[in-house]
Structures are given as structure tokens and as C-alpha cells.
Amino acid sequence: MKKIKLILLLLPFFCFSQQEKIKSLDINLTNYEYPFPVKFFEVNNQRQLFKMAYMDIIPANYNNRNIVLLHGKNFNGAYWETTIKSLIKEGFRVIVPDQIGFGKSSKPDNFQYTFQQFAENTKKLLDHLGIQKTAILGHSMGGMLATRFTLMYPETAEKLVLENPIGLEDWKLVVPYQPVDSWYESELKQNYEAIKKYQMANYYDGKWNADFQKWAELGAGWTTAPNYNIVAWNSALMYDMIFTQPVLYEFKNIKSPTLLIIGTRDKTALGKQLVPEEIKKTLGNYAELGKKTQKTIPNSKLVEIPNTGHLPHIESFDQFIKPLIVFLKQ
Q: Which residues cross the membrane (predicted)?
């Protein structure tokens, strides 16, 4: 009994010590190195001028095919490293933007986030790079953006790939609406332990390894910045965007050939902690959501990856990259 009490007393110290080991990162990640050179593109949004960071990798064996990789809400372009390396090996030009509010891109003090704005910024970047046709791959929140981009610019999006996209169900039908201020207060409490706990529960089903920790530490590095409140506020605004701007009702309008890559163990659902247990059990069931979505999107194919959660390109890379390359080469 004494040993148990001692452990409980020391637990907060251990958590604090782990957080203390996290490398502190500024809000534009100027002290964090991406896997490939980063450039910046200026965009005018809502009477403000922002810098949009991006990687553009053109391989020596360029096959005249392009692909844009769109990151999720809790990530940035850096986590596509292994995907980029495999794609350029096959000859694809790979464009990886950090959307405004993410990664190395500008963090607004005042901004109305919409998927349409993100899509328009991405199209402006592609126009700047002289790219008229490309495949679009979106993971998590990036899947919602990839869908919006494809609907807005069908002449540009040759193919669409959705990797465990969120928004395959309309949470606002069952989850109580949370004001932006509520999301903000939650984000202010983020640290390494909170991020790890969330990801273990929703992404990795209790598993943890060095790859998972790498990306959790990147997110936690922001929480130590003196002006982390700016990041937290932007994050809160994005939660509101995701919650109030569903795209699933328009899946039927997608014209581009589409590949769904779904880790079937995924349980991610926005606001799941706000509903009773009986409702919570029905949310984020990707094993069923993937099948349902595939039936909704015309000319689509579903690849299921069993025993895999929210990040197939991190957790089960070989099972993710092989069908992706086959689809892109068709």
C-alpha cells in the first residue's frame, strides 16, 4: 500500500519531467527542421498578408505526374517524410503545403477559417508553381480539405486519395455545440502527456513507439512557447470549422477517381467526450464509415488496413504506400 501511495505522489513529477524534456518550439517552427527545403508563398486573405510554407520536391526521374499532400489538424507537412521519399523514388513531383495556421506558415491573430479558403490558397500555390493537373491526398482534416478542393477545382484534381479522413459523419447532429472559447480553454491545457493520452486512445489503441512519440513531441513543443495562446486560439477556430462545415453530403458530387485508405481500428470523432456512453460507442467507427463512404463516392475504391488506427502512413507504412502508388500510376 505504501508503495502505491508513493507512486501516486510521484506520478505528477514524472509527467512534469517528461514535459520538461520536450524541445521548446516557436509558433512558426523556425527552430524545427523539415525533411526537405521549405519555401514560402504569400497569400492575401481577409485583408491580411500571410506566408504559406511548402515543400516542393521534383525528382530527377520526374514522370510528369504530381501529387499534393494535405496534412491533418494535429500535424504539419513534416510528417509526410517517408511518403514523400517513396513517391519521389517513383518519379512523382510532391507538393506539401502547411496551411495557414499550421506548421511553419503564418499564425493569424484574427481569422475566419473555412475549407474553401484553404482550398483557394492551395490552388493559388499550384498556379504559382505552374501545376495544372495533380492528384490530391488528404489525411484526417486534410481529407475534408482535399474533398473541398476536388469539388471546387475538378479540372485540377486528377485523382483524390482520402486517408482516414475525418468528417465521414456529421457530429453536430449528436454532439452539443461548443463555443470557440470552450475549445480554446481546452487547447490551453495541452501538453505532452495530454497529447499522448489522446493519441493512444484514438489513434493507436494503447500502442506507443518512437515514431508515434516523435510527432507527439512536435505538437507538445508548441505548448512551451511564450505565445502558445496564439496557436491555441487558431486551433480552437479550426475545431469550429471542422464541426460546422461538413463535406460528406457532397461526396456524391466528386468526379475524380477516388481511393479511400482506411485504418479500420481508428476511433477518431470530434466531440466524442461530450456525449453519453451509448452515443460515444456509435461515433468514429471507421470500419463501417469507410464502407459507407465508398458507396457514396462515384468511381471510388476502398483499401482497408486492419489493426491500424488514424495514421496508416505512420503506423502501417508498407500497407499504405503500395496501394497508393498503384492507384497513382493507373
A: none
